[in-house]
Each structure stands twice: as C-alpha cells, then as structure tokens.
Amino acid sequence: MSTPIPLPRPTAVVYCDHHFGGIDGKTANGLVRHSETYEVLSVIDSGQAGHDAGTLLDGRANGIPVVASLQEALDLEVARTGTRPDAMIIGVAPSSGLLDAASRTVLLAAIAAGLDLVNGLHEFLNDDPEFAGAAIANEVEIRDIRRPRATKDLRMFTGRIEEVTCPVIAVLGTDGAIGKRTTATILVDALRDAGIHAVMVSTGQTGLIQGARFGIALDAIPAQFGIGEMEGVVLDAFRSASPDVIIVEGQGALSHPGPRR
C-alpha cells in the first residue's frame, strides 16, 4: 500500500514588528521554531531585518528571513515562487491582547494584498467593521483563534476525566511567557523519539496556530466553563489518539500574586 503524499501547507508571513525574540513576540517565536499548519516564509520586524530568524532566537539558522516590511515579504515570495503568501499571522501577543494603530495599518494592507489573516489576540477582528469589510471586499478569511464556541455549546465538568487511564502531565511555570508551551512541545518530541506515543493538549493561541490537534484557548473561555472545557479536550485526546501519555500546556503562573492578597 502506497504512503499518501502530504498536502502542501499554506504559506504565511508572521507580523511581529519590534517584538521578535521578546516576550510580546512569543507567538512569532513559537511559529519560527515549530509549525505544523503553516510554512512560515518570513517574519516582519523592521528593527531586526536582514537577519535569520533562527539565528536571532536560538543561534541556529533555519532559513526564515526577517524582513522590514509587508512589501518586502511579498516581493520575496514573488521572486521565489511567482505567487503571494497565503496568510499573514499576527505574531505579537501583547499583554493587552489588542492591536495598536500601526499594526492595524499593516494588517489591513495584508488583507488588501489578498492574504488571509490569522489572529490570536483577544480582539476579534471579524467583529471589527473595518477588518470585516476589508475581508469581504478582498475575498479573504479572518481566523479569530481565541473565539470560543457559543455559550450553549461549552462543556461543564462531568467527572468523566476518571475514564482517562494514561498519565496526564501539566507543564506549569512561575509566570506567563516563560516557556511552558515550548517546554511541552520539546517534551512531546522527546517522548515520541523514545517510542512513547505522546499527545499534546494546547491551551493557548500559539499552540493552536502551530497546529495542535487538541486544544482550547483557555483564557478566552468563561470561568464557569473552564474546567469542563479542559476535561473535554483531554477526553477528546485520550479517546481519539489512544496515547501513552498526555502533555498539557499550562496557563498562568504558580506564583500569581492574586490569591495571596
């Protein structure tokens, strides 16, 4: 029986101006290191243009250039393949979860150039009249990664988590943007290399954009449904993938000061 040929991944430019390699650039950082869904062509950061993204992040070149502008990213792909990229991914993840005016201008220009927009922010761009209108006019799609399902479809805790018989390991940390997702990804890869069938459950926007098969944007789920949604996605992973172990990307921080006040 022949092995099926995998379909080519959509191509994408990652927008991360002035933040690549920093805390607020964590989505771009993650995509440069690992992406199953998209083939990352370039990263936009005018302050670090001309460098290799892998060299900037980890000291190892990976062939993904950092460019100064959207136009440079478009010209680079036209020169390489004769076509434009398929999508623009918002690679910044500011603590506010909102776009600034300069970013809006670049993203609207990407839509005008015919690129789909992948948005992991708390600000849902399909609800923004300017972005929604531009998407319709240019026949492109905006994906709001953090948008939860309708409230009527969210899950409450049932206790059926007891049906999961494999180990479930949560990767936790002492702060946000400290490397929980990156550590979980490396751990899953190492377990698989050792012959252990490991599955990752992602709980943030970056993991979902990277292509996590199982996951939710936990910080966008109303608190009443958070534990039920987590139970549900772990059950989904156990039933669908029959793993030896499930690795859960943690959220938040063990040392959060709020509960101590």
From TrEMBL:
<dbReference type="InterPro" id="IPR011669">
    <property type="entry name" value="DgcN-like"/>
</dbReference>
<dbReference type="InterPro" id="IPR027417">
    <property type="entry name" value="P-loop_NTPase"/>
</dbReference>
<dbReference type="Pfam" id="PF07755">
    <property type="entry name" value="DUF1611"/>
</dbReference>
<dbReference type="InterPro" id="IPR035402">
    <property type="entry name" value="DgcN-like_N"/>
</dbReference>
<protein>
    <submittedName>
        <fullName>Protein often near L-alanine-DL-glutamate epimerase (Cell wall recycling)</fullName>
    </submittedName>
</protein>
<dbReference type="InterPro" id="IPR035086">
    <property type="entry name" value="DgcN-like_C"/>
</dbReference>
<dbReference type="Pfam" id="PF17396">
    <property type="entry name" value="DUF1611_N"/>
</dbReference>
<feature type="domain" description="D-glutamate N-acetyltransferase-like N-terminal">
    <location>
        <begin position="47"/>
        <end position="148"/>
    </location>
</feature>
<feature type="domain" description="D-glutamate N-acetyltransferase-like C-terminal">
    <location>
        <begin position="156"/>
        <end position="259"/>
    </location>
</feature>
